[in-house]
Amino acid sequence: MKRIGVFTSGGDAPGMNAAVRSVVRTAIYNKVEVIGIQRGYAGLINKEFVPMNSNSVANILHRGGTVLKTSRSMAYKTEEGRKVAYQNLVEQGIDGLICIGGDGSYTGAMKLYEEHGIPCVGVPGTIDNDIYGTDVTIGFDTAINTAMEAIDRIRDTAESHNRTFFVEVMGRHTGFIALQVGLAGGAGSIFVPETQNPETWIDDVFSPERRKRTFTIIVVAEGDEDGGAINMMTKAKNKYPELEPRVAILGHIQRGGNPTAADRILATRLGNGAVEALLAGAFNQAAGLVKNDIVFTPFAEAISQKKSLNRDLYRLIQILNV
Amino acid sequence: MKRIGVFTSGGDAPGMNAAVRSVVRTAIYNKVEVIGIQRGYAGLINKEFVPMNSNSVANILHRGGTVLKTSRSMAYKTEEGRKVAYQNLVEQGIDGLICIGGDGSYTGAMKLYEEHGIPCVGVPGTIDNDIYGTDVTIGFDTAINTAMEAIDRIRDTAESHNRTFFVEVMGRHTGFIALQVGLAGGAGSIFVPETQNPETWIDDVFSPERRKRTFTIIVVAEGDEDGGAINMMTKAKNKYPELEPRVAILGHIQRGGNPTAADRILATRLGNGAVEALLAGAFNQAAGLVKNDIVFTPFAEAISQKKSLNRDLYRLIQILNV
Amino acid sequence: MKRIGVFTSGGDAPGMNAAVRSVVRTAIYNKVEVIGIQRGYAGLINKEFVPMNSNSVANILHRGGTVLKTSRSMAYKTEEGRKVAYQNLVEQGIDGLICIGGDGSYTGAMKLYEEHGIPCVGVPGTIDNDIYGTDVTIGFDTAINTAMEAIDRIRDTAESHNRTFFVEVMGRHTGFIALQVGLAGGAGSIFVPETQNPETWIDDVFSPERRKRTFTIIVVAEGDEDGGAINMMTKAKNKYPELEPRVAILGHIQRGGNPTAADRILATRLGNGAVEALLAGAFNQAAGLVKNDIVFTPFAEAISQKKSLNRDLYRLIQILNV
Amino acid sequence: MKRIGVFTSGGDAPGMNAAVRSVVRTAIYNKVEVIGIQRGYAGLINKEFVPMNSNSVANILHRGGTVLKTSRSMAYKTEEGRKVAYQNLVEQGIDGLICIGGDGSYTGAMKLYEEHGIPCVGVPGTIDNDIYGTDVTIGFDTAINTAMEAIDRIRDTAESHNRTFFVEVMGRHTGFIALQVGLAGGAGSIFVPETQNPETWIDDVFSPERRKRTFTIIVVAEGDEDGGAINMMTKAKNKYPELEPRVAILGHIQRGGNPTAADRILATRLGNGAVEALLAGAFNQAAGLVKNDIVFTPFAEAISQKKSLNRDLYRLIQILNV
Hints:
The structure is a homotetramer.
Chain A: E1 3-8, H1 16-29, E2 33-37, H2 40-46, E3 49-52, H3 79-92, E4 96-101, H4 103-116, E5 120-124, H5 140-161, E6 164-169, H6 176-185, E7 189-191, H7 201-205, H8 208-212, E8 216-221, H9 228-239, E9 246-249, H10 261-279, E10 285-290, E11 293-298, H11 299-304, H12 311-320
Parallel strand pairs in A: 1-2, 1-4, 4-5, 5-10, 6-8, 6-9, 7-8
Antiparallel strand pairs in A: 2-3, 10-11
Helix pairs in contact in A: 1-10, 2-3, 5-6, 6-12
């Protein structure tokens, strides 16, 4: 391979820039040219190509977001769209791709290989941690630290007013963020999409023992089946109006910010590993970190399999609220 | 005076603990005893008194919230309630009070003086900065830094996706937080309750020039007459559906957290000044910082007057978005 | 077992409080009483015992340092000292111990078992990460994030002035902190005790290619054989006086601060695992996290074995500075 | 005026970028062109000119350091050097200058006006706060918050080990940083260059009452006459070897980092005011903030006068350590 392309796709995640930097420099180290493709698959179709050298990625390691930008592309979802993308790649002389993103991004890469034979290796970048084939995704550690620090702030108010707070964190389909943030934030209860809430949840949360405590933080994943923090707060308030619970929805602040050390190192390792795999001819798969080792999972498997919550962590919540 | 009481009242604010520490130690330095009254006026009625010495306030300078707790008291709003409070103070041998809080807290203190002759000096503690008689209130600097850091995070996503964000900050009746946060966060527009939004605001925000920029942050005070960030975003989206603006409501995270240096120093100075004034017989008034000097404003004036926004700062927004 | 004791020992580390909380609550969950022993082995000898319940560890999860305090004890290093400690434990009815600390703490615990049969399980708490039997120690993640954020600040000055900085991080005998901080901080070179610096290191660092860059951050472990950052800076300056390199020694700030999410969760898991092992009769060993699983290593092995640096990470530094 | 130049000079300070942004956009708003001059006076001589538009300063408001870079220039200190600078300005068609920096930078600007009639307005940018004509300089608030957060971290260790720490902060000739950081960090004593230390300082610091406390933080300005933190710690240790005091020298971390809200707003206001003054023909002076109002002080006065420490703040230290 002589020239590869790199792009970020899907929601932005802290550490994506560290991954881009690692991809670019690993390629250069291996005497391979790199083209940055802006705005993900949209840029592939619209020819937003930028040649990159070592200096292009100087001083981005510590920045949140993605300097290559990202977007959703409806055009790429069509066969004609992907054909245009392919022709642009040929025109640019790009022999292979590194795709930094999530499930949807992997699907796009897989189709490009199946239809046009362009090899690609994926790097898992999303704060949600919901990608199979890696214990952690790039951006997850930063997101849980950001959410935890928000809870540390909310704790000051909760404690000063003896109040219960329902804090909603990101996670439409999975509870990875809620579980880790809940544990790290000292939550009294955690509600996640993976687990059916007991019918008695209000009374569990506001049991006589619990109400003797000065305050409680309840962490709720946005995709929980009881409808997120506002709905749960309303239900609780209807049953126990004297408690005056409050709600905080953390929202988009969880997505940005300078990446943590763990995310920078993870992104650096996976970006490096992905390029080395691509150059070695091992493509149509995604890099990941499993039990501290870099591993690769075929795109088809990464997309179709679902990663489970760590039940051991979930069990700890009950013990810690004795 | 031989023994004074100190309490925090109303919403908690970062720096209240620094004020309590300064009150306690200034009193002790002047050979006066101090009683901490917990949960504000409620504790005054329910006899939640705690003797305090220098060690009671060790290691709280840097903590958010209030170690004396705070609450709202319906009972104190009645004449009988205030009579009970008075009798408890007499029973405890408390000759004077330091009240750390906002307008409502000042009103309560004024009534106690009018009805029962208990002298009190106020210390302005609220993140909203909406107290007359002081350029800044305790907690304001921390709140604007917290909100600004949240915007710094949101900026990463806004920039990566070329998106407009409506960010809602606290301020039901005033735009102090919105104005400073908007300036510090590089907002494209700021909407505050003090100013009538022009009918053309959507087109101002999304003018052709502005849309050429990669992204825009709009800061909205929750009390703005167009109904807060969600309503404004919806109106904007209806007119320009292709823009896909997003909303972030910062909420309670603005209220907590370790106080900034400015808030710790302000709280220390005002707590000290308030006790010295009380001991010198200058009470029924609130301490404040005006043009860097400690000044005192009668409660009646502090409550009835309204502090204005700094128009010079407001004017800068337009210049900076050229 | 009916009653266990818990203490922290050696240098303090962020997350120790989270471990104490987890130990106390896991014990109570299992109907076992817990006594807190203050100031480590010194408190064992001086009878500094404090009964603990669930509330004793409320609101400490997010605090740095250790609420149980820590110290070095010369008395405990003698056989008579340990006999006194043993007698105090018998007097208190303490059947087993949880020791949170490093190698030296494990050695003390092992001797107490060998000489007096008191069972103990260890929890690895130290920012240095130099304990065998666990991939990471409690406090390490916080320390590297703190040091990395310091480097992010130094980078602003280095870049503004086009300057080289030698940044010294903790690590008298090991380069764990230096390696991770260097990678996360974008260091140009990393010098650690485990690796012999090449004789040509000055010219490697200040090669013509490197000098074309706007600035460089060099990360040095305090125990590096060239004598730490000041010595290395002086040597470099003598050879290239026109470069005006600067030094920053991060020092004690690396040891404190609120623990990160990873440290809180790690401490919670290991504290829980240690108590469950102790109650199950599996003692004289230390808990650890290896490849994401909780494992136990006999004290004798944990003390005598040396954990190696991850060579894959070390190798990346060269690639990333292409 | 049709075209102005802007540059940063001297040590970098957080908020310099916010000032540059405000200068550029205020000029454009007034239909005046702006040229960025890189690396301060050195760039003036070496023709490092960059035309700037509104977009050149997008997304720099929140960044530490200075995008225009800074340096010291020996050449500019000579008359010939300044003549070259003048000729370059004429060549570029630059009619006036905005200089962001400290005393030395003002001196350079004053000479350029005296010798060649180039008008300049100064903006005070330095973390040291040692500029006459403004209550606060750009970067000071960020620096004290950074140093205070470092002390918050050190406090964890000091408290856990019952130890005294000597913390050295920046300030070769003035104690502004030490005084504010000491107050905000809860220091037991503060040593500054402006005040002669009493001969009894060691016994004051380690009085029997003080030693009953669990720990003490001593804040020392680097320019204190007893020789900085290491010397003071050594003297204290020689007298009271059993106390094992520790030292932390904060160093360069105080200079960098994202600016606080106060610094961003201050820089924005002063940058705006400086350009408006320059365009109005009021030059050879520096902008400043005195008692919350923007004022201007002639360069000659700003350079020759010395700003005093706030004695009221100094007095508080004693009261707060009762």
